Amino acid sequence: MTVSISNPLVRLPLAAAAEPALPSELEAEVISLFDEFRNRLLRYALSFGLPVQDGEEVIQDVFLSLHRHLQLGRSRENLRGWLFRVAHNLSLKRRSIAHKIRKTMKSDRALVEKHLDPAPNPEERLAAVQRQNRLRAVLRALPEKDQCCLHLRAEGLRYREIAEVLGMSLGAVSISLTRSLARMERVD
Question: What is the pLDDT of residues 128-144, one digit of tens each?
Fold first, then answer.
């Protein structure tokens, strides 16, 4: 049976369009070896200190290499040993590359940090000025006793000392400071 496409000259067999291609004998063999050795090879690759993602990529490269190896008609003797040798070499290579990348990134980061200006940028300076202005406005809006409590606490006096200086009870100092700090935190 044939199916017609918009071009009347092109006709495709319906059966060919509907059936997926079956894996070749070579692909079936590679898939079988993959199923058998994947987990063991991954554990071996991870023993080199590679992250799982890198280990997975090593395993993928191992089986791509195996497919090429078999496709070229090379030796099928001791494929298990061959798989582990290729995994070993690729894992060492991947670890070496990762080490070089980390080393380069570390030196690049140090170089950038060395040349960074530690002073805040204009945006950060503006934000700091605006924050200070908001906090000052809240401080000025507080009752005089609350302002005094905050100033004395900022000078390092303890609650008991503040209570003695202002002639207040210890509880009143605590309430005043708690209330004042809560207002300032809401604005901040």
Answer: 999 999 989 998 999 99
User: Are both 96 and 149 inside the same structural domain?
Assistant: no
Whether this model's pTM surpasses 0.90: no
pLDDT at 54 over 50: yes
Kindly state whether residues 97 and 42 are assigned to the same domain. yes
- Do 43 and 83 sit in the same domain of this protein? yes
Residue 77 sits in the same domain as residue 155: no
Residue keyed to tokens 């497919």: 67
